[in-house]
Amino acid sequence: MKRLFLLCCLVIMATEARAQTCLVNDPTGTPLNVRARPNGPILGALYNGTPVQILEITSDSSGRQWAYIAPLEVGKRGWVFEAYLTCN
């Protein structure tokens, strides 16, 4: 039982350590589309300067990077084009 608890704690800590806070920085001048999956249907949009937390990163079949994000304020979780985020 102790091992299971320890394993759960390590998984949670690793997930939190990977999360990174960034700002939306879409150079097109339009809000950044938030999608159901990389290059998938649009769920909503976020304006430049919106703080988000990256929860996961993946690449599409063309090698472009997509980030699964959670807005820190208002907005939908989903996938955005990673190049349109500025992270410290």
Protein topology:
Layout: H1 2-18, E1 20-24, E2 32-35, E3 42-46, E4 51-59, E5 65-71, E6 78-81, E7 85-87
Antiparallel strand pairs: 1-4, 1-7, 2-3, 4-5, 5-6
What is the succession of H and E elements?
Answer: HEEEEEEE
> Strand order within the widest sheet?
6-5-4-1-7
Helix content: 10-25%
State the end-to-end CA separation: 39 Å
Largest sheet: 5 strands, antiparallel
How big a fraction of the residues is strand? Answer: 35-45%
* CATH fold naming: SH3 type barrels
How many beta-strand segments?
7
**Any idea what the CATH architecture is?**
Roll
What does this protein look like?
This protein is an alpha+beta fold. The chain has one domain: SH3 Domains (SH3 type barrels, Roll). The chain is built from 1 helix and 7 strands, in the order αβββββββ. It has one helix at 2-18, and strands spanning 20-24, 32-35, 42-46, 51-59, 65-71, 78-81, 85-87. The strands form 2 sheets. A 5-stranded antiparallel β-sheet has the order 6-5-4-1-7. A hairpin with a 6-residue loop joins strand 5 and strand 6 (78-81). The radius of gyration is 15 Å and the shape is globular. The model is unreliable at 4-16 (pLDDT under 50).
